[in-house]
Amino acid sequence: MTNRADLHTLTGAYATDSLDDAERAQFEEHIGQCPACAQEVRELSATAARLGLAAAVVPRPALKEQVLRSIATVRQEAPRTEPGPPGGTVPRAPLRRASRWALAACLAAATAFGATAVWQHREAGDARDQAREVQQRTEELASLLAAPDARTRTAKLAGGARATVVVSEGRDRAAFLATGMAEPPRGKVYQLWFNDKGTMRSAGLMDPERTTSALVMKGRVGEATGMGVTVEPAGGSPEPTTKPVALLDFPA
């Protein structure tokens, strides 16, 4: 039986349907009496739904066997503990914040799974450097997607591609999620742009080797009313040189 203090840490597991029947029943009884946990479940579920807009990348068949072999040989890091306050009172709010960002980071990492699989075959030093870089991008993306004021707009693109833009007015940032985009021509790259009332401002480049992406656009939203995507030479251009392959207005 899970104690009352532990119940506050199960919001992420509940939102991702990771509890057994007994735990689920106990937690559902708990959130009926705990508005804070009920609100957090709603936020985490919304975050998972936004991330679900980006299609998962199918890993190579041998990866599952490789991971299962590693489980028996890789030592699990012991959980960090902090001394509790007098009287054994559990600090509930920090636990909720920790579970929220941990879940969001894990969900966002799933959208970048295709990139992380490549690390398995690179030198350890390079893999660690890339892991840190992707972790930073993942945490930034997860934080934006979990923002209380995050708004989304989704559109179908040519060729069956699907794109979603997420905007947080409070954070003054935007994210772009796309799936099924055609590979750009050799030596070319997709470049993102903020649409400042007709003037296009560079917002970063997509990985030319991936047709599914989830990334925070570079720069502040500012006065931008929408965004666009064009095909540009490798390294990008200071201004668009081709007709946009995608134009999306930001959600109102």
UniProtKB/TrEMBL annotation:
Is this entry keyworded Nucleotidyltransferase?
no
Superkingdom classification of source: Bacteria
Q: Name one GO cellular component term.
A: plasma membrane
Residues forming the Anti-sigma K factor RskA C-terminal domain are 107-245
Q: Where in the cell is it found?
A: Cell membrane; Membrane
Region (Disordered) residue ranges read 74-93
Please list the GO terms describing molecular function.
sigma factor antagonist activity
User: What is the recorded membrane topology of this protein?
Assistant: Single-pass membrane protein
Domain (Putative zinc-finger): give its ranges: 12-38
Q: InterPro entries annotated for this entry?
A: Anti-sigma-K/W_factor (IPR051474), Anti_sigma_zinc_sf (IPR041916), RskA_C (IPR018764), Znf_put (IPR027383)
Alphabetized UniProt keyword annotations:
Cell membrane, Membrane, Transcription, Transcription regulation, Transmembrane, Transmembrane helix
GO biological process terms, alphabetically, are: regulation of translation
Name assigned to this protein? Regulator of SigK
Instruction: Give the organism, scientific name.
Output: Streptomyces silvensis
